[in-house]
Amino acid sequence: MTDDSNEVDLPLKAIARRGAISSTTSFESTDGMFNIEKDSRLVKLFNKAVENNLLFTHLDENERIQVFSVMSCRSYSSDEIIIDQNNEHEYFYIIEEGEVDVYADDQLIASFGECSSFGELALIQNASRFMTIKAKTNVKLWTLLGETYRKILMDITMNKRKVYDEFLIRVPILQTLNEVERFIVADSLESVQYEDGDIVVKQGELGDDFFLIVEGNCIVYQKACEYSEGVEIDTLGPGDYFGEIALLCNRARVATLVAQGVLRCVKINRERFERVLGPIREILQRNIPRYNSIISLEQLHIIIDNKKKDC
Ligand code: CMP
C-alpha cells in the first residue's frame, strides 16, 4: 500500500492551519491527516459515490463536505489486499480509479469500479469484516476512518443543536416545545437559501417540505382559481413558518411564496415533519383557518374537516 497523501493539491499543514473547510474542530485521523480541501471534481465524485448511502443522505452539502475533507488518498497495486476478512474493519472507502474484487471465503462475489464505495460498516462501529477486498487493477482510493466520521457527526450535531436552539427558542409556533423536543427538531433541519425573486413554493404544485424563516422575507401570492392573476396576500418574515398545509392536508400548495431579497430558511421534509413536529401538529392545524386566504376558506375547512380522517 502506498500513502499518496501528496496527491492532494495543497500542502497538508498549510491547510490544517488555514482550516480550509469550516468546521469547529480540526479532526485528525489515526494516520495523521487533517482537513484537506477537495476540489469540486472530487466533491462531485464523492457525492455520487455516497448518494444512496444512508450514512450520508441525512447530511446536507456542507456537512458532507466536512466529512469529505478528512478523507485521505491511498493507492494499491493490482492483487493487493485492501480489506482482509480476518481483521477488524476501520475504514470506509471510495474508489476514484480502478476496480476491486470482493471475496467471501475465497469465493468471488462482486466487483466495484470507479465512483463506488465500500466498508460503510466501519462508519458505525469497528466491525469484523465479512469479506476480503482485493485490488483487481491498480486502484486509487479515498479512505475515511470510522472513528473520525463519528467524531465529525457528533460535532455537527452538537453545533447544529447550539446554533438552531438559539433560533428555535424564539420561533412563536414552537413555544410549547421543551428543550429535548427542540433538539429533536434541530437535528432534522436542513438550511436553504433563496435569492431575490426565487419561487420557494408554487401554488398548485405538490410539496414535501415545511419551512421556518431564519432571515429575510417572502411574499405570499394566491390565485382564486387556476386562470386568475396571483394577488399579494401576505408577507412573512423571521420566525414565521409556511408549507404546513400541503403536509397536513395532503394537498397541493395553496399559495406561491417568493423571496424578497435574500431569504434564509430551514426546512423539514415530510417524513421528519411527521416524526418531530407531532407535538405542534394540532396548533398548526388550528391556525390554518386564520389565514387571510382568498381561496374560499370553506374549501379549506371542508378539507380540514374531511382530513380529520386523514389531516
Ligand atoms: P402550503 O399550502 O403547503 O404552501 C403554501 C403556504 O403558504 C401554505 O402552506 C401556508 O403555509 C402559507 N401561507 C402563508 N400565508 C397564507 C395565506 N394567507 N393563505 C394560505 N396559505 C398561506
From TrEMBL:
Where is 3',5'-cyclic AMP 1 annotated to bind? 120, 129
| Annotated residues for binding of 3',5'-cyclic AMP 2 | 244, 253
Domain Cyclic nucleotide-binding span(s) in chain numbering: 55-170, 173-294
Which Gene3D superfamilies does the record associate with it?
Jelly Rolls (2.60.120.10)
This protein's GO CC annotations: cAMP-dependent protein kinase complex; cytosol
Alphabetized, the UniProt keywords read:
cAMP, cAMP-binding, Nucleotide-binding, Phosphoprotein, Repeat
Judging by the UniProt lineage, the source's domain of life is Eukaryota
Which InterPro entries does the UniProt record give?
cAMP-dep_PK_reg_su-like, cAMP_dep_PK_reg_su, cNMP-bd_CS, cNMP-bd_dom, cNMP-bd_dom_sf, RmlC-like_jellyroll
Q: Which GO terms describe its molecular function?
A: cAMP binding; cAMP-dependent protein kinase inhibitor activity; protein kinase A catalytic subunit binding
**Protein family according to the UniProt entry:** Belongs to the cAMP-dependent kinase regulatory chain family.
Q: What is this protein called?
A: Cyclic nucleotide-binding domain-containing protein
Taxon lineage: Eukaryota, Metazoa, Spiralia, Gnathifera, Rotifera
